[in-house]
Design brief:
Shape: globular
Structural class: alpha/beta
Helix content: 40-55%
Order of helices and strands: HHEHEHEHEHEHHHHEHHEEHHH
Radius of gyration: 21 Å
Strand content: 5-15%
Number of strands: 8
Number of domains: 1
CATH superfamily: NAD(P)-binding Rossmann-like Domain
CATH architecture: 3-Layer(aba) Sandwich
């Protein structure tokens, strides 16, 4: 009898090692995903952006500022630098570098935005109407909130900035996207996604009753707040997938992608150095911010084949497992519908955009 139990125990252990642990890692910590990014060394694949316009949110941040400089190095005609903070320093750096190299200096607009309110997105869209073309929109703006606080709109700050305001910007800019005459590809709208979605996914289940977005906007305690970045980015990835599907259904010539730059030690992630587990994860996957920015520039330069896809270093990867299940499809639809209700009620002009998508 003892031998039987020993064999059962060994079989159980073998099952855990060969099936249980790989399944767990695939759901919550796909380390190969991080390893490929850490070792990846992408280069910008588009040789010239001459005549084109690129708009970047979070343009004062580590990734956004470097992405702007990569565009400028490849002869972009117009850059729109958008951030809560003044991007005049980024503008001056680009102008000096171009003059020192004896190269043409792009037209650079510096716009400030309040990502904690819907009014910020509305103001951005109003200014963007004056642009004759918008070829590339790279939405890098985001926050990593370690303490719970609410936006003036009544949402947890990560959900407000990383999801709702970013989604609203994409909707309001969508009708304005138009390729420049020399650009052979449709305009590209790119959201920034992250590995952090995976470890947060076990908190992403649909509620039995009540609003899904409200559940995602509620965090009690430091541990729950630690998942808010991943949760807010998961909401954004759900939204991006739904938006891409609806753009396809209407036949609009716009490419919608999500790009994962990988991780890097930046001003945003710096506080994680004081936290053991986040520090170990970051150290496992971190690479130079310029490499991350390069991946984002490739993501927002994709041709029509990249539509609806997640791009790593300009290579498409699959959606997280929980999003591909039937429950994930239902969650994505809930995200889309609840977000639509929120925006239509509170944002003037967004109803007309939704009508274009239906």
């Amino acid at each position: 009898m003892g031998l039987v139990w020993l064999l059962v125990g060994l079989a159980g252990l073998a099952g855990l090692v060969f099936w249980g642990i790989p399944l767990f890692l695939a759901e919550y910590f796909p380390w190969r995903y991080l390893q490929r990014q850490r070792l990846g060394r992408p280069v910008v694949t588009t040789k010239s952006y001459a005549g084109r316009t690129a708009l970047i949110t979070g343009a004062n941040g580590a990734f956004g500022s470097r992405a702007a400089k990569l565009f400028a190095e490849r002869d972009i005609d117009t850059l729109v630098l958008v951030d809560l903070n003044d991007c005049d320093g980024v503008k001056k750096d680009i102008e000096k570098a171009r003059r020192d190299a004896g190269k043409p200096v792009p037209k650079i607009h510096v716009w400030q935005i309040d990502m904690m309110s819907y009014a910020g997105a509305e103001s951005l869209a109003e200014k963007a109407r004056a642009l004759p073309h918008i070829d590339h929109v790279l939405l890098t703006a985001g926050i990593l909130a370690f303490k719970t606080r609410k936006s003036p709109e009544g949402w947890e700050s990560s959900v407000q900035v990383n999801y709702l305001s970013t989604a609203l910007i994409s909707l309001l800019l969508l009708p304005l996207l138009k390729s420049s005459p020399g650009n052979p590809n449709p305009p590209v709208l790119t959201f920034v996604t992250t590995f952090g979605i995976f470890p947060s996914s076990f908190t992403m289940g649909l509620p039995n009753v009540g609003s899904y977005l409200r559940k995602m906007s509620t965090a009690h305690g430091d541990m729950a707040q630690a998942h808010q970045y991943g949760r807010s980015k998961a909401l954004l990835l759900y939204f991006a997938r739904e938006l891409a599907a609806r753009v396809s259904a209407t036949g609009r010539r716009v490419t919608v992608t999500s790009a994962d730059p990988g991780s890097a030690w930046t001003g945003l992630t710096g506080p994680n150095k004081d936290k053991l587990i986040p520090r170990l994860i970051m150290n496992f996957g971190a690479r130079e911010p310029l490499i991350c920015a390069t991946a984002l520039v490739n993501g927002v330069s994709a041709d029509a084949d990249g539509h609806g896809k997640i791009l790593h270093d300009f290579e498409a990867v699959g959606y997280p497992p929980f999003m591909e299940r039937q429950s994930g499809r239902r969650a994505g639809e809930r995200v889309w519908q609840e977000t639509k209700m929120e925006f239509v009620e509170k944002v003037e002009g967004v109803k007309e955009v939704y009508e274009l998508l239906e």
